[in-house]
Amino acid sequence: MMKQTDNSGALALASDTTRQSTVFRLFTFFGSKTVRSWCYQFLLAALLLGFSYWLYSNVVDNLRAQRIATGFGFLHQRAQFAIGEKLIDYTPRDSYTRALAVGLLNTLYVTVCGIVLATVLGFIVGIGRVSKNWLLMKVCVGYVELLRNVPVILQVIFWSVVIRNLPSPREAIILPGMGFLTNRGLTFAVPAAHSGWGWAFIALLAACVMSVLLARVARRWREHHGKMVPVARLRAALIIGLPLLVWVLAGAPHELNRPELRGFNFKGGFTISPEFTALLLGIALYSSAFIAEIVRAGIQSVPKGQLEAARALSFSPWHVMRHVILPQAMRVMVPPLASQYVSLAKNSSIAVVVGYPELANISNTLMNQTGQALEAIAIMMGVYLIISGATSLLMNLFNRYVAIKER
């Protein structure tokens, strides 16, 4: 009897010990910081998935109740609306997909033009902000304070109103050597259609690529051998000479398609529309004010000793800025510049207020005709996400290029 009691007590003690050991292991397992982190993330992901499913089910049920079809099949239907400005061929008989492609190209076109114009103006004003000339510095300060404190949509509307109040084509403002400025836009002569221009443009692109490669080779040579190879003139000659040579070999086409006043408008030449001009000026000037401040901050981040050393070596102001200040300032400027470029790309959607047919404007027309609002908005969100991501990627690559290389 005594032995049975001892055995049962031993078994109970062993069971309690095992239970305590299991609890201790569980406590130790969930007490780990890594395990807790994974559990919190799993719980958050489950909540987000549950909320997304509830939201999706709610939207689908409401659409079915209102008998609104869903899906992207409507993209193959005929658009049945005209588009005034287009970079590719388009007619109202084309599909909605083609219409969205026209809007996308217009968005990219105004974005690229805006980035170039905003960058040029921003660098000029930013350098003027640190000028020793009091008048120039104050003018640049006024430029920045005025443009960055006025909403961009108001600036776009302002330029649209200004352009619309210009004279009619019959009373056009003549710009010597440029063209005619009217309330229909800026009209100027362009080279007549000829295959030689296309080949010259291809040669220009090839020359730019070769120039970049030549600069990289010269840079690596300087890093490895400590000697600078003067390639600036060679690069300039390459960019100018190669397209010129191809143009001459292609027959040197020089005929111009000149605009002529016929009736109430000009025929021929090329016209930059009021809508495009107002949008471009609005978003470019607005962004240039912020870029100017980025440039100013980048220049002022360079130690003054660098500037004094360059002046002691008898560098001209241009060479000091070109070879000493800007290369070091770019390392500070590139990250915020990327943010401004992304913001400019998204601001292009303001075109809807002036009627320029970019992606948002065409998507709005698409929604009114088909009722497929969710799909159209999803397409716009995806496109702007890709544009922003591509812009950030390119700027990150450029940032790696200008970053300090440690040996």
UniProtKB/TrEMBL annotation:
<dbReference type="GO" id="GO:0043190">
    <property type="term" value="C:ATP-binding cassette (ABC) transporter complex"/>
</dbReference>
<dbReference type="GO" id="GO:0006865">
    <property type="term" value="P:amino acid transport"/>
</dbReference>
<keyword id="KW-0997">Cell inner membrane</keyword>
<feature type="transmembrane region" description="Helical">
    <location>
        <begin position="376"/>
        <end position="398"/>
    </location>
</feature>
<keyword id="KW-1003">Cell membrane</keyword>
<feature type="domain" description="ABC transmembrane type-1">
    <location>
        <begin position="104"/>
        <end position="395"/>
    </location>
</feature>
<feature type="transmembrane region" description="Helical">
    <location>
        <begin position="196"/>
        <end position="215"/>
    </location>
</feature>
<keyword id="KW-0813">Transport</keyword>
<dbReference type="Pfam" id="PF00528">
    <property type="entry name" value="BPD_transp_1"/>
</dbReference>
<comment type="similarity">
    <text>Belongs to the binding-protein-dependent transport system permease family. HisMQ subfamily.</text>
</comment>
<feature type="transmembrane region" description="Helical">
    <location>
        <begin position="236"/>
        <end position="256"/>
    </location>
</feature>
<dbReference type="InterPro" id="IPR010065">
    <property type="entry name" value="AA_ABC_transptr_permease_3TM"/>
</dbReference>
<keyword id="KW-0029">Amino-acid transport</keyword>
<feature type="transmembrane region" description="Helical">
    <location>
        <begin position="276"/>
        <end position="295"/>
    </location>
</feature>
<keyword id="KW-0472">Membrane</keyword>
<feature type="transmembrane region" description="Helical">
    <location>
        <begin position="38"/>
        <end position="56"/>
    </location>
</feature>
<dbReference type="InterPro" id="IPR000515">
    <property type="entry name" value="MetI-like"/>
</dbReference>
<dbReference type="InterPro" id="IPR043429">
    <property type="entry name" value="ArtM/GltK/GlnP/TcyL/YhdX-like"/>
</dbReference>
<protein>
    <submittedName>
        <fullName>General L-amino acid transport system permease protein</fullName>
    </submittedName>
</protein>
<dbReference type="InterPro" id="IPR035906">
    <property type="entry name" value="MetI-like_sf"/>
</dbReference>
<keyword id="KW-1133">Transmembrane helix</keyword>
<keyword id="KW-0812">Transmembrane</keyword>
<dbReference type="GO" id="GO:0022857">
    <property type="term" value="F:transmembrane transporter activity"/>
</dbReference>
<feature type="transmembrane region" description="Helical">
    <location>
        <begin position="108"/>
        <end position="128"/>
    </location>
</feature>
